[in-house]
Design goal:
Helix 10 (328-338) runs parallel beside helix 12. Helix 7 (249-252) links the parallel strand 9 (241-244) and strand 10 (259-261). This protein has twelve helices and 20 strands. It has helices at residues 29-34, 36-42, 77-89, 108-113, 180-199, 220-236, 249-252, 269-274, 290-306, 328-338, 408-413, 418-431, and strands at 10-13, 46-49, 53-54, 66-70, 93-98, 139-141, 151-153, 203-206, 241-244, 259-261, 309-311, 346-348, 440-445, 451-456, 461-467, 473-476, 484-489, 494-495, 499-502, 506-511. The strands form five sheets. Strands 11-10-9-8-5-2-1-12 form an eight-stranded parallel beta sheet, covered by helices on one side. With 512 residues, it is of the alpha/beta class.
């Protein structure tokens, strides 16, 4: 694992919605460069940037037209290299979003694969043997060229699936992962990664990493594929980081990834904390951390023995905003948890100020119900909240127009704001070795309110008490006897001889 990941705290940037410097209503690379000092001063030292490659943007850039060319609306390859350099000048790292499972139908690889004459791209994608044959378990596009066959697609019809083979081929068109076509696809993706690593990026977040080899229910062939790719990277670029969108660390870490996310589409533990009918992080106090704790224990054991990290994100471009249905007290409680758990924290842009889900939007660039979580960042009191000088009607996505909408400017000026609470929590994490990414972890109580867990290093032990409910809770805590509170969220919390009182919608961290 790259050394810098041991203290990495990530900020996810959706580039089109972050900061527009040329007045076209869409964010750009220069806009990110302008805000690097803000990101660093908040406490983040690493960035994950969503897809920024040339694309027709039928799926917000997850439909790549050219893997080696920056999207013109964000800037040039030289501008992107300057973003890498500016991050490094500040002691920060940046990951690009790699989409290895499919391309746009406009990619040159796909155009050449459609030709009826055999060529080096004929097997770059999954094509059935004839036009009347549907690919097993996948949707397809057909009748689009003179080539006889149907092309498998991932997700949208504009995203033909790249060919990495089938774990157990059953039909003539299904190739083995080690056949020439799938191996050529693998080599092409390695080449793309090498191109950007040589330019200065620090690694990749890999989109849908577990989906490449088809009909592979136990991921055996997919794991082998990633072991090959990550093995190559680690030999050539030992400080490059690989983060998987897989949601099942027991598989992804075997594949050689440094980190995996707990995600909304994976096992229910993550959702039970934040995005279920009765999540644990709610003042209603009707949720439970038990489901999460049971699953997390298994994941953490795998990560510890496998030398990897588990990431619990505040959200991302595919989820409802963390602020949807929550007030600021509840959000602070969420971050008291997110910023004291092991692994590398990930915070989605705007979550640090409580950016809201914008309701009722028409889909933009394939966003559909996700569009409300992708609205432009709200910086200050100038036009368009400082995001862009464009006319409001020209903004990429409509902004929140509520009179009380949060901005960075307002949050910075309020000592008790969510932004300043998060800034303090990051500082506390950095200053206390027990709270670092790789420090030991153990659940103490995970069957109700409060949630209690132990973090420890060879220098320090800290017990974290989290109580999102609207009632203060007093618990017996012999294990924390003689300890002192190093952080309290909420009012009237206390640490006594053998009890701890955790405030309503609050938290206490006790050092012993």
């Amino acid at each position: 694992m790259a050394k810098w990941l041991e203290n990495a705290i990530f900020y996810e940037i959706y580039p089109q919605s972050f900061n527009d410097t040329n007045g076209d209503g869409i964010g750009d690379f220069q806009g990110i460069i302008e805000k690097l000092d803000y990101i660093k001063e908040t406490g983040f030292n690493a960035i994950w940037m969503n897809p920024c490659f040339d694309s027709p943007f039928g799926d917000a850039g997850y439909d790549v037209r050219d893997y080696k060319k920056a999207a013109a609306r964000y800037g040039t390859n030289d501008d992107l290299k300057r973003l890498f350099d500016e991050c490094h000048k500040r002691g920060m790292h940046i990951l690009l979003d790699l989409v290895p499972g499919h391309t746009s139908v406009e990619h040159e690889w796909f155009k050449k694969s459609m030709l009826p004459e055999s060529n080096e791209y004929t097997d770059r994608y999954i094509w059935t043997s004839n036009i009347w044959e549907q690919p097993e378990g996948l949707n397809c596009i057909r009748g689009i060229s003179d080539r006889d066959g149907s092309a498998a697609v991932n997700f949208f019809s504009s995203q033909p699936a790249l060919n990495y083979g089938y774990a157990e081929p059953k039909y003539a068109y299904q190739q083995k992962p080690t056949d020439p076509g799938p191996m050529a696809t693998r080599a092409a993706i390695k080449d793309v990664m090498k191109f950007w690593l040589d330019m200065g990026c620090d690694g990749f977040r890999v989109d849908m990493a577990g989906s490449l080899v088809k009909c592979d229910p136990e991921y055996k062939e997919t794991i082998k594929l990633w072991q090959d790719i990550t093995g190559y990277l680690k030999s050539e670029y030992p400080e490059a980081a690989m983060v998987s969108e897989w949601g099942e660390p027991q598989y992804s870490l075997q594949g050689g990834f440094d980190m995996d996310f707990l995600l909304h589409f994976g096992p229910e533990g993550y959702n039970s904390m934040f995005r279920s009918a009765e999540p644990f992080f709610s003042k209603r106090g009707k949720g439970t951390p038990a489901i999460f704790a049971e699953q997390y224990n298994g994941y953490h054991e795998k990560a510890t023995t496998g030398g990897g990290l588990i990431c619990i994100p505040s959200g991302n471009h595919d989820m409802d905003r963390l602020a949807r249905g929550r007030d600021e007290d509840e959000l602070k409680c969420c971050f008291a948890f997110l910023l004291t758990m092991p692994g590398a924290p990930f915070v989605y842009y705007g979550d640090e100020i409580g950016l809201r889900y914008v309701e009722g939007l028409v889909s933009v660039e394939g966003g559909y119900n996700r569009t409300g979580s992708r609205s432009p960042m709200q910086w200050d009191s100038t036009a368009n909240d400082g995001f862009s000088t464009a006319d409001k009607s020209q903004l990429y996505i409509k902004q929140d127009d509520a009179p009380d909408r949060p901005t960075v400017e307002k949050q910075m000026l309020d000592e008790k704001s969510l932004y300043n609470e998060i800034k303090n929590l990051i500082k506390l994490r950095n200053e206390n070795s027990a709270l670092h990414n790789l420090s030991a972890f153990e659940f103490v109580s995970s069957d109700g309110y409060p949630l209690v867990y132990k973090r420890s290093s060879d220098k320090q032990t800290v017990y974290v008490f989290i109580n999102p409910s609207d009632k203060a809770v007093t618990v017996n805590a012999d294990y924390a006897k003689g300890g002192k509170a190093i952080y309290t969220l909420g009012e009237n919390g206390s640490v006594k001889t053998d009890t701890v009182t955790v405030p309503a919608s609050g938290a206490i961290f006790v050092e012993v």
